[in-house]
Prior knowledge:
Oligomer: single chain
Low-confidence stretches: none
CATH topology: Lambda Exonuclease, Chain A
Pfam family, one: Cas_Cas4
EC number: 3.1.12.1
Mean pLDDT: 88
CATH class: Alpha Beta
Radius of gyration: 18 Å
Protein name: CRISPR-associated exonuclease Cas4
Keywords: Antiviral defense, Exonuclease, Hydrolase, Iron, Iron-sulfur, Manganese, Metal-binding, Nuclease
Family: Belongs to the CRISPR-associated exonuclease Cas4 family.
Distance between the termini: 46 Å
Amino acid sequence: MKTVLISSLNQYVYCPKSAWLLFVAGERAESPHLLEGKMLHKRADSAEPSAPRKGVKQQRTVSLYSQQYGLSGIADVIEEVKGAVYPVEYKKGVDGDWLKDQVQLCAQALCIEEMRRLAAPIPFGYLYYAASKQRRKIALTKKLRAQTIQAIEAVRALLTTRHCPPVAFSEKCPECALYRVCLPQETERLKRAKPR
């Protein structure tokens, strides 16, 4: 079974074509958004643990894997309080209801559950959005778990195909680091053009 990177799930849910370009075609592109995100993770990874809240144990930059789901990746932070354990994922942007981030967080929880042989599923995790300095509690529901497993299977299938998924231009396209490679507007114009 081909191993799926946890971070690739975030990219796939954002846009399957950008995931294909990155993880199959090998395209590399940097954007100010990606560079800011990398800087945030470097600071979070190298920083001394912030003044821990009473009774909260933190582990930073934890390697994760799941043999059951064929996943590997890194958790920014794993917190433990009174025996309860949950992942915390750092994001550079503003707080929002972003499925891509929730799927990434849920995949981390699936790995932690397997690695620690937990008797019960992890009920929640947190997404920390640096731009808005908001920490959002995310319920790891059956629905989110099913969406995460579907994304894992879709990425695994994507990794073995030579066919680039189609894309429709949307408002998120200009913010994508691969916009100049993907050319979604130009691709749509070519599709609409009648053959001569």
